[in-house]
Amino acid sequence: MEGYKRVNKRHGQGVPGVQGVPAEPSANWTLPTMRSKYLLAVERGDVPSTRQFLGMAQQTGININCVDPLGRTALLIAIENENIEMIELLLSYGVELGDALLHAISEENVEAVELLLNHEVNSKGEEALNWTAPSSSFTPDITPIILAAHRDNYEIIKILLDRGYRIPKPHNARCSCKDCVDGSSEDSLRHSRSRINAYKALASPSLIALSSKDPILTSFELSVELRRLSRLENEFKADYEKLATKCQDFAVDLLEQTRGSRELSIVLNHDTTASGVDEAGSEKMKLSRLKLAVKYKQKKFVSHPNCQQLLASLWYDGLPGFRRRSIISKMAIIFTIAFFFPLLSLIYLIAPTSSIGRLIRKPFIKFIVHQSSYILFLLLLILVSQRVEIVDINGEDSNKDKVDREMRGSPASLVEWIILAYVAGLIWAEIKQLWDEGALEYIYDMWNILDFTTNSLYIATFTLRLLAYFKVQEEKKRTDPNANLARENWPAYDPSLVAEAMFAAANIFSSLKLIYMFTVNPYLGPLQISLGRMIMDILKFFVIFALLLFSFACGLNHVYWYYAAVRAKECSLNPDAEDDPCNRKYRSFANLFEIVQTLYWAIFGLVDLDHAELSPRFKHEFTEFVGKLMFGTYSWIALVVLLNMLIAMMSNSYQNIYSQADEEWKFARSKLWISYFDDSGTLPAPFNTIPSPKTFYYILCWLKSKLCACSKQQKHNRWQSIKKIVKKLNEREIRYQSVMHDLIRRYIMNKQRGPQKGEGVTEDDINELKQDVSSFRFELLEILRNNGMKTPNPSQPKPTNRRLSRKRSTIALDRLRRSFSFQTASPKGSVKSLSRDFATRRSPSSESVSSNPNMAEVDVTIEKQLLRRTHSNGIPETILEEEERIRRESLKPVNGDLLRRDPHDEGRDATKEGASDSKSLDEADDSLLRELQMRQNGDEGLGESLDRNSELSDRDSMSRNGSSNVVEMQPAGDSVVGTSLHPQTTSDGDEPPESPGLTFLDPDENRSRTKLALVHDTRESVIDSKKRTES
Predict the structure, then answer these.
(1) Which run of H or E residues covers position 910?
(2) What does the pLDDT average to over 291-320?
(3) Could you tell me if 483 and 597 lie in one domain?
(4) Which H helix or E strand runs over 957?
(5) Which of 90, 497, 684, 739 is deepest in the core (most CB within 10 A)?
(6) pLDDT at position 391 over 60
């Protein structure tokens, strides 16, 4: 590019040390060249040159809003480089913002976001919230708050929420309003993506923590909504499921922050309704939030160790130390409670508030009592199914009872009457559960569906038995001979036969219900869950198998229909014939129903190929071949393909459960535990059908409340109870909000600390450091140029620590105001302390810095750049790390003509060829030293390349007439002697001989001290030159 001597390989641009903005535009400069130099100055962080370009924009015709080949404006370039000074400069000259705010949010530059928001408010006022700009990088539905939520940046989200930005909730996927219909018809993809972007923002943990009063409840509801959307919009199923998992993880992270049982119980017992408070105003452990998590299938939340510990403590309440007992002791306690469960139930009926009555209400005791009662019910079913006869006192069978049970419409036996009482108790328990949970919740549980089916079969069995009994009694009254009909002569669909079939099916389901008890076992529980998943796979497989079965049944029926009709006619004419046409195997394909049965049993290998053969008297070989081909094709598809597919599906389900066995099992166990925590359903069947004194007491209280509702005392008591309930609700809400505030605060602190500890130095940190070094060079060169490149005075007054302390306090207060959290280094290990150390090592005869008004400008520039490069990763870099980094590069040559190179340094430099970034940073620092020395020594080429205006030409000529002494740096005891740019004198007043070159410090000394000493001496010389000029 014209006007630049060399190219910086690191940036791919002109050397930052060249001032490329002339005082007056040249005639041969074109607009594209000026635009390129303007954007180049912004890219390399040259604030002075950029200021000159902006100031001369109207004269030179530069468009300050021009873009580079990548479509970036100057403001976007400054935002990408995170150059705050450059952003402030561009905003002060009124550049167009465009989508700069979105880019600043995308770069997560908090300071830039604040600057842009403040500028927008100052320029547009109240319209700033509704301001949007077209962008090629972001879709129109991406607003600042949505993009900040996508990045999940806590600071930026808080800033935007404080300024009134909000995210409207998207419409329902089935919404048919005008906006949704028009948006879907115009561009369905954009409509769907906008919904995904909105939900992606709403699922941001930082946004939920800052905008929701109940973050856990919001996470639950949002995860359920996202799972529902994943089923509705299958095209974006993976995206919605990922967001749902993100919401679940956030709720688990908040639960992880609880530090005690009190906080945990407050969180899990919180309820927005008054269900957890009785009329007396006392609170009960209802675990409403945990039940809601089970309802919404928040498996990670429920299976978390904190929840499991609280559930276990409530489950084993009443048996202290039970889990620490031996296996023999546990079995002894369980069998004792199981054996005496009828006695415990009777005691509870008589005295429910006694010690034993309160003991049976404990969850674990209640579970043992209920399961013992159910096992007794299964034993009674076994007795009935095995046809156990009643034996009289003499030990002989009662023949009358035996004959009665074999007749149609036989009366029920004693065991069957007990079973009937059990079934009545089970039905009553299901009715109470249906009343408490509601129809939808009741149907949602598959175990409830199994109970409903079993109870329905038992009801149908007893109904048919009762119907058969009354029918037989009526026939006996009419002396009908069918009343005493033998069993082999009963009709096929006799009520007694149908009742026996239904009772057998009910027995199967009742026995399978015992598997539910295995959920509490850590070994059998995962197997029981896997079995449930496999049943769902079997149902899915059955749909495909039924289609295949019906297809081949129709085809085979079309092939064999004639031969089946002929065989049926021949067999009907001679039913006693035993020839081939009436053989059983020739009837396998007689009709559609027979073909379906044949194909079904063929899967298990119970049907041979000869069943597809025709009768020997038919010579239709082709028809027989087609029939055998169809039967073979069906067998191959069903046995080889479908059955193996079913095995693979079941194996996959088992592997999924096995990979998450702990989570799945704990979730299923928690559901079982919670079902026994309520006070209702204490007694098992059939004792729950017996009215207890407590039942009569509740009935009397209900009647009293209805009959005496109009009395003044009753109204007063009701109002008092309402006040107590409201007071308790307010207290509970206050406690919950306090705990939730603590959980969110801990979550945010841990979230901000996490990336700082794990990321280390990234590429962005290196790029930011390069930008800071480049900006520092240009600012320092601008200061030196404005001061005439005067040599420094070694007797300049040393600075005090007062201004540095104010600077440090300002930075800390600014970060606290933005709610930043970062680790602070000790004062002795910071770069500022090093700066103060060099400042205090100067001549003690200097005057105070506070009296020098020009000191602040230079100090602020130097220390701002030093602090910025040490805070690139959010954690201050200690001085030991800074010195170690510089020491490793301390043996590089600065200028071959000025420095003497140690031959031992060549091998050390060869080992550092791979560290290109570190070398580039040190080369920049060496270049800065070299330019300072060459300016003072009168180097003509570099002096002319700094600027081409007439003012610098005069200064360059003055510099060429100046002294040509060589800079010398040497250690002096524990302190570092500042760089002298004047001819040095000895104690006798004679000038020392000229040094042939610059000598390095001792290798054990830190190179950073030399560089910072040079910077401070240069600063002192600049201030001294200004004072002399002004005087």
Answers:
(1) helix 905-910
(2) 92
(3) no
(4) helix 950-960
(5) 90
(6) no
Write down the pLDDT at residue 665. 92
Query: At which residue do the structure tokens 């044949």 appear?
Result: 598
The whole domain housing 610 covers 530-674
Three-point CA angle 604, 609, 613, nearest 5°: 140
Kindly tell me if the per-residue pLDDT of 16 is higher than 60.
Answer: no
Please report which confidence band the pLDDT of residue 1021 belongs to, taking 50, 70 and 90 as the band edges.
Answer: low
Per the CB < 8 A criterion, the answer to whether 548 and 634 are in contact is: yes
Inside any domain, residue 863:
yes
d(CA 248, CA 242): 10
Q: Are residues 562 and 496 in the same domain?
A: no
Amino acid letter for position 48: P
Domain final position from 674, 706, 741: 674
- Please name which of 672, 684, 219 lies closest in space to residue 421, comparing C-alpha atoms: 684
46 inside domain: no
The answer on pLDDT for 801 being more than 50 is no
Query: Residue 960 carries which side chain, given as an amino acid letter?
Result: R
Residue 877 pLDDT greater than 80, yes or no: no
Distance separating alpha carbons of residues 555 and 561, to the nearest angstrom: 10
Q: Is the pLDDT of residue 891 over 70?
A: no
Co-location of 775 and 836 in the same domain: yes
What's residue 773's pLDDT?
81
| Residues 667 and 637 placed together within one structural domain of the fold | yes
Q: Taking a C-beta distance cutoff of 8 angstroms, is the pair 544, 619 a contact?
A: no
Residue 575 is encoded by which pair of tokens?
A: 């039913």
Residues 455 and 556 in one domain: no
Question: Three-state DSSP class for 67?
Answer: strand
132 vs 128: CA distance, rounded Å: 9
Same domain, 570 and 423: no
Specify the pLDDT at position 847. 39
Bridge partner residues of 73 (DSSP): 67
Q: Considering only CA atoms, give the Rg of the chain.
A: 45
Please indicate, yes or no, if residue 902 is contained in any of the structural domains: yes
For residues 557 and 418, membership in a common domain is answered with: no
> What residue spans of 257-326 are helical by DSSP H?
261-268, 288-295, 299-302, 305-315
- Are 931 and 941 contacting, i.e. CB atoms less than 8 angstroms apart? no
Distance (Å, rounded) from C-alpha 636 to C-alpha 642?
Answer: 9
Contact 938, 962 (CB under 8 A): yes
Q: Could you read off the pLDDT of 183-202 as tens digits, one per residue?
A: 888 888 888 899 999 999 99
- Is the pLDDT score of 97 beyond 80? yes
pLDDT tens digit sequence for 550-575:
999 999 998 888 887 777 676 666 65
Q: Using alpha carbons, select from 90, 86, 87 the residue that is nearest to residue 57.
A: 90
pLDDT of the residue at 262: 92
In a domain, 957, yes or no: yes
Do residues 1020 and 981 lie in contact, with contact meaning Cβ atoms separated by under 8 Å? no
* DSSP 8-state assignment for residue 616: T
> Residue 391 forms beta bridges with which residues?
397
Of the three residues 642, 674, 706, the one that is the final residue of a domain is: 674
Q: What is the pTM of this model?
A: 0.69
Do 815 and 903 have their domain in common? yes
Give pLDDT, residue 276: 59
Percent of the chain exceeding pLDDT 90 equals 31
How far is residue 94's CA from residue 122's CA, in Å, rounded to a whole number?
12
What values do phi and psi take at 234, rounded to 5? -65, -20
Number of domain units in the chain: 3
**For position 399, what pLDDT does the model report?**
55
The secondary structure of residue 921, as a DSSP letter, is H
Of residues 809 and 354, the one with the higher pLDDT is 354
| Structure confidence at residue 734 (pLDDT) | 92
Residue 971: enclosing H or E segment and its boundaries? strand 971-972
Q: What is the dihedral of CA 994, 996, 997, 1003, to 10 degrees?
A: -100
**DSSP per-residue string spanning 744-778:** HHHHHHHHHHHHHHHS-S-HHHHHHHHHHHHHHHH
Q: In whole angstroms, what is the distance from residue 203 CA to residue 679 CA?
A: 37
Residues 6+ apart with CB under 8 A from 843: 794, 795, 796, 797, 798
